[in-house]
Amino acid sequence: MTVTARADARARLTARELTLAYEDRTVVEGLDLAVPDGRVTVIVGANACGKSTTLRALGRLLKPRGGAVLLDGEELAKLPTKRIARRIGLLPQSPVAPEAITVADLVARGRQPHQRWWQQWSAADEAAVARAMEHTRVAGLADRPVDELSGGQRQRVWLALALAQDTDLLLLDEPTTYLDVAHQVEVLDLVRRLNHDRGRTVVVVLHDLNQAARYADHLIAMKSGAIVAEGTPARIVTAELVREVFGLDCVVVPDPVTGSPLVVPGAPWAPEAPASTPVSPPRKASP
Fold first, then answer.
1. Positions of E strands within the chain
2. pLDDT tens across 191-221, in order?
3. What residues form DSSP beta bridges with 41?
4. CA angle 33-190-211, nearest 5°?
5. Do 39 and 195 form a contact (C-beta atoms < 8 A)?
6. 42 contacts 220 by C-beta, under 8 angstroms
């Protein structure tokens, strides 16, 4: 099964014949990808399908073995790092903060791409950091060391750093990791608002297919390092696709709140009831 609905005409970020590998293990080979501009694109797939590896390449954290990633028609590998950081914000999986750094200081590092040797900090930097911390609801943690926070709090701080970069393109690898369901919805609602209110192009890797279908304008489903379907969730999320990509039998119904596709897994496994043992009639007592 292959379903595609590419949108190359309005794509600032693209990949052409992309091959990605770790040492001698090829993860992605010959991948073509176009990220629709001004939309929320979500990449889904089973574990080890290549979705996070692809996102790392789009953010230049991983050098392609073959092919290229292009930003506004220019090969990403040939652009200066600082120039890329002004245009692409990236939240990778499991980032590590410097020891004892505070929340405010970590988020402020998102402004480094905008610094000049003659102007190290400005009112615009201050406003961007404050806005990012307010959006992610970590302003009250400003003076706390990052390594003393809970996993969910740290994840929101890292998201604030990415937002403080104030880029038009935002790449997020599993941004809901460590978050409870309420904060997952809060973060994804924030992503949607950033896209709607400020026109940011966002690419998100998610494990939860129902969240992906709810928040994506453009959905990309990957399997074994290749794109097997892409397009609007309403068009491509079917029981057949879920079975092919995730190996799961399901029923797809409209979400009662949003109308987006909602994947309902098939009946759970249950042990068979043991066969009933015949009950012998009571023995008569000896006289």
1. 13-22, 25-35, 40-45, 66-71, 74-75, 88-91, 169-173, 201-205, 218-223, 226-231, 250-254, 261-265
2. 998 899 888 999 999 999 999 999 999 999 9
3. 203, 218
4. 60
5. yes
6. yes
Q: Which two tokens stand for residue 180?
A: 């409870």
At residue 207, what is the residue type?
A: H
**What is the spatial distance between Cα 169 and Cα 86, in angstroms, rounded to a whole number?**
9
Is the Cβ–Cβ distance between 49 and 225 less than 8 Å? yes
Cβ neighbours around 73 below 10 Å, total: 7
The closest alpha carbon to 259, from 237, 230, 229, belongs to 237
For residues 231-252, average pLDDT = 96
Q: Would you call 54 helix, strand, or coil by DSSP? A: helix
Contact 266, 250 (CB under 8 A): yes
Report how far apart the first and last C-alpha atoms of the chain are (Å, whole number): 78
Contact, 211 vs 49, CB < 8 A? no
- Based on its alpha-carbon atoms, the radius of gyration of the chain, rounded to whole angstroms, reads 24
CA 40-38-72 angle, 5° bins: 115
Beta strand 226-231 pairing with 74-75: unpaired
Token pair for 68: 């290229």
